[in-house]
Amino acid sequence: MSQSHRSEEALASAPVGPLMFKLALPAVAAQLINMLYNIVDRIYIGHIPEVGRTALTGLGVTFPILMLISAFTAFAGMGGAPLASIHLGAGDREGAEKILGNSTTLLLCLAAVLTTLFSVVKEPLLMAFGASEDTIGYALDYISIYLMGTVFVQLALGLNAYITAQGRALVAMCSVLIGAVLNILLDPLFIFVLQLNVKGAALATIISQGVSACWVVGFLCSRRSGLRIRRKNLRLERAVVGKIAALGVAPFIMQSTESLVTVVLNSGLQFYGGDLYVGTVTVMQSVMQMVVMPVQGITQGVQPVMSYNFGAKNYRRVRETFRLLLRTTLTVTVAAFLVTFFLPEPLALIFNDDRELVELVGKVMPVFFGGIWAFGAQMACQSTFMAMGQAKTSLFLALLRKVILLVPLAIILPMATKNVMGIYVAEPVADILASATTLTLFLHKRNTLLPESAG
Q: What is residue 381's DSSP assignment?
């Protein structure tokens, strides 16, 4: 029996606890490693002599564009990967490969459009996202080079989900590890040795993403993969793209609205406080990534188990997996709450040693992360809806936390209180309300989607 078939058999029959650990650990590692692309850039840039704080703030205002590019990878990748797992569980390998082929072409088309569009409108966008006359130069230096590697980001991140969908989490981790290690090595070389500063960070990133993309595509074209990219499946089919889009719109909105949130936060903080306050969000979003990425790794690692068994109508196994997933994600987010509450300044020092910025982060971080403890419930429930192909519910939940709750609160609270702290308070209020709503909705729908009597 080949490795790919053994992996699929494990999805159906291996004990849930050890299987979840086996799949989630490489997926968590992959998310943490992937996080290093942006985190390492920020650490190095934040410590550039004399201009570190300004350069870091400039990099921060590019974050909405980076998230939009990443959101489109989720649209095609995470929109199709659960469907591919469901097809595998139902014994339809040809259908799964058709989804993979259409997703590959879709990612290439998106890369071409995004590169062209953002290259044309980058400067006015960055100014709208909170850049100032002091920071716009650094933002343009970074994003101009980063956009040249959009196709690498699309393929590396979007197609890697199809490796995880087969239960090959270790291979998926390696694809990210290769690029991240290269990025860590190239960053100091380009930034400090060659004195390319912000441009060097961007160049290191796109080279690293290019290597990762080659690894992913090479694996999915090889016989080692249970799902293979085949020429006959690359032609876009309306029905297949429609299914990918229906499920992919939820993870797309989850990531793209991160850009909207960043714009609202940066604009509000620039208005009520100035560059220093915008800098706090750059630091705290970096810390937020350090929390969210492991949780996303856990949910993505577990997703193939739930999708495969949902396709096979083994609902008991899906229920069992969800219960363990919920306990795990809540443990991570509660731990994150405690760390950010008691150690805000040491976390800020990772990214910048400017005393004024570090002290302000120490003041606002415990407020900003005040509701993160509840976030694990939303992540577990929402990823389970995604795993079961519940497109409409996933879409609503993707909109709930950021668009329906956080953005209006971040606008209304500082206006009502006449205080910049209202912007920071909006985050925990949205986290708690969204998590409570999501868990309630899941418990309400559970018996319909996962009937006790059916397996």
A: H
- Paired tokens of 244: 């990918």
Over the stretch 195-225, which tens digit does the pLDDT of each residue have? Answer: 787 788 889 889 999 999 999 999 999 888 8
Closest CA to 74 of 154, 150, 151: 154
Only one residue has tokens 């006790």, namely 452
Question: CA 220, CA 199: separation in Å to the nearest integer?
Answer: 32
| CB 280 within 8 Å of CB 58 | no
In this structure, the dihedral spanned by the alpha carbons of residues 132, 133, 139 and 141, taken in order and rounded to 10 degrees, is 180
Distance CA 330, CA 307 (A): 21
**For the CA atoms of the chain, what is the radius of gyration?**
21
CA 339, 343, 346, 349 torsion-angle sign: positive
Output the CA–CA distances (angstroms, integers) from residue 386 to 78, 113, 178, in the order listed.
Answer: 9, 27, 28
Query: Which amino acid, one-letter code, is at 256?
Result: S
List % helix, strand, coil for the chain (3-state, nearest 5).
85, 0, 15
Six-digit token string for 356: 């004024």
Q: What tokens does 78 get?
A: 């995470």
If we measure between CA atoms, which residue out of 323, 366, 338, 62 comes closest to residue 201?
62
Instruction: Quote the CA–CA distance of 451 and 257 in Å, as a whole number.
Output: 33
Buried b / exposed e over 428-452, threshold 16 CB at 10 Å, is: bbbbbbbbebbbebbeeebeebbee
Cα separation, 41 vs 209, in Å, equals: 14
Q: How far apart are the C-alpha atoms of 169 and 157, rounded to whole Å?
A: 13
On whether the CB atoms of residues 429 and 284 are closer than 8 A, the answer is no
The amino acid occupying position 316 is R
Shortest CA distance to 295 belongs to which of 326, 268, 320, 252?
Answer: 326
Q: Name which of 19, 389, 5, 35 is nearest 169 in CA terms.
A: 19
Burial class (CB in 10 A: 0-12, 13-18, 19+), 105: middle
Closest CA to 41 of 153, 141, 173, 188: 188
CA distance 405 to 434: 8
pTM exceeds 0.90: no
Report helix angle 63-89 to 150-164, nearest 10: 30
What's the gap between Cα 118 and its chain centre? Answer: 20
Q: What is the pLDDT of residues 157-194, one digit of tens each?
A: 889 888 887 777 778 778 878 888 888 889 888 878 78
